[in-house]
Amino acid sequence: MLKNLPMVTSPEDKKEGEGEIILEEEEKNNALNNPKNKMDVIQELVALIEAVQSIGDFRRMQRKEAHSLVRRLKLLLPLLEEIRDIDTRIPEAGMTCLCNLKGAFLAAKKLLKMCTEGSKIYLALESEDVMIRFHSVYEKLNQALDGMPYTEIGISEEVKEQVELMRMQLRRAKKRTDTQDMELAMDMMVVLSTEDDRNADSASIERLANKLVLHTVEDLRTETVAVRKLVKERGQNTETNKQIVDILRKCKQIAGLEVTGILDDPAVPKALAKCPSLAVPNEFLCPITLEIMSDPVIVATGQWYEKNNFPLPKKEAPRSSDNSNVEQNNEIYSVVQNLSSNQLEVQRKAVRKIRMLSKENPENRILVAKSGGIPPLVQLLSYPDSKIQEHAVTALLNLSIDESNKKLISREHPIPAIVEILQNGTIGAKENSAAALFSLSMLDENKANIALSNGIPPLVGLLKKGTIRGKKDAVTALFNLSLCQANKARAIEAGIVAPLLHLLEDKNLDMVNEVLSLLLLLASNSEGREEIGQMSVIETLVQFIKEGTPKNKECAVALVLELGTKNPNLVLAALQYGLYEHVVELENSGTNRGQRKANSLLQLMSKSEQNS
Asked: Which parts of the chain are ARM repeats (predicted)?
């Protein structure tokens, strides 16, 4: 049992002020003692508001919060303008508030710049940590305005009410705890857990790249620069940075770009190594690889290789691809026509060919759809031939990687036929049917359609009796479906909890994080919470917190926290298995999210102990 628990402080409190600009005491004193400095501080504050207004194009995950912060800063302009127009000396308390407000503005500017220039992968992976930073800025703004002598300064009642309303909004915003984008979180876990090149996994990578807007060469070039800067600042060997680099590598790989040397500085050929004083202009660095170009179009310096005797590789004559593109288009159109052939063997060869073509590259997926290939493929799902069914469902899986194709497929109502294959198809067909349902369930309307087509029970069946690959596909599909509240109850009724708990002990599956995340979703349902909250499960979770990977620990502590919040007895039970010391260790050395969850769990432990 717990005795004399120390006061719990969050990891964010420990890091308070770290990396932020803090005003020196001497600067504050100067501002307080010199009346002229009132105008200087006001001008700086107004300039900072104008600066943050010019920061735009915030990252997707933080866009809403960033725009809200900018809007709240702008609400302070009337206050600053009234103070600026007052001729009398500002009281010491007022100058102190203004100086503190400058520190809060600088912190806000730094955070907003990170949300527009920082690594998209980092901002998504650490979205909760970034939200904590927003809350920290809100707290700084509130504290800076606390004690503002409105009456002594002569601030109008209208402006005072506006500022106090803004402060109330800040307090509400700080209390709000936005959850992770769970679909995005699962995609990241799937991408980080896979090492093979199976196309279902390629679908997750492409979907993740699209969500993060990392699908063009320019997107990936900019992200590479941002990741290099991040790693340089934070160190290469942190768990988060390793994950960021891994995701970036896979996004570049799926886009067909070079993936080696992601963290290397722009490469300089050996021939230039003997010329350390020669600075290579940015214009000569390839925007894709960030390496030196062999044939730059613009020579900004009017010199380059001739003066420095640098031999360039010989340029190969360009190859025309027009003919090959026409041939490819004609081939795909011809194969699509054969899907509707009256001859079984022609149909079988055609659907197999479409399966292979749709796996190869994004262009083929678009061409198959434009050639009218989706309707006949959906019809072939019900053809009484197991191989044709398997090829058809796999081809649709491949095609559904493209977002527009996903919608086109859904219009043909394929879900009942896919569920039928999931129930009665070959092993390979069952696996790819589960993966196809996962892909299609990215559209919210399909989450309900899959459940109404009785798709959840056979997915649970695949959890119980499927191959390793099949179980992985079933977990990811069920996770996506369980994002819909009504589907949680359906999954629990179908018996999902028992096989999930069994999978936690399966060393071959290597999907502990995904299983724990799915259990966390189900634990928000009262019946699911009751099934999951067994003593044996609590003991298993404590073992993961003790011995698991950093991500295992993070997911396990989040689940214990969810269970214990609704049932304090489970917290007391976990303490009997030695939970406390492992959570303390996690609070000090876990992932950012793991530290936050550990901190919350320590507070819950303290409360449970006091009430026991």
From this structure: 372-409
Kindly tell me if the per-residue pLDDT of 306 is higher than 70: no
Burial 113-135, CB ≥16 within 10 A → b, else e: ebbeebbbbbbbbbbbbbbbbbb
Position 329: which residue type? N
Q: How far is CA 187 from the centre of its chain?
A: 8
Cβ neighbourhood burial of 322 (10 Å; 0-12, 13-18, 19+): exposed
Give percent above pLDDT 90 in the chain. Answer: 45
Q: Shortest CA distance to 550 belongs to which of 513, 604, 503?
A: 513
Average of per-residue pLDDT across 521-536? 91
Distance (Å, rounded) from C-alpha 530 to C-alpha 497?
10
Structure tokens at 368: 């198959």
In which band, very low, low, confident or very high, does the pLDDT at 612 lie, cut at 50, 70 and 90?
low
| pTM (two decimals) | 0.67
Q: How far apart are CA 604 and CA 596, in angstroms?
A: 13
Number of residues in the chain = 612
Q: What is the gyration radius of the CA atoms in the chain, in angstroms?
A: 29
C-alpha 600: how far from chain center: 22
> Hey, what are 67's tokens?
């725009």
Kindly report the backbone phi and psi dihedral angles of residue 438, in degrees, each rounded to the nearest multiple of 5, phi listed first.
-60, -45
Enter the tokens of residue 98.
Answer: 């203004």
Please enumerate in sequence order all residues whose Cβ is within 8 A of that of 597, keeping only pairs 6 or more positions apart, or say none.
Answer: 554, 557, 558, 561
Around Cβ 258, how many Cβ atoms within 10 Å?
12
Reference 466, options 498, 499, 417, 515; nearest CA is 499
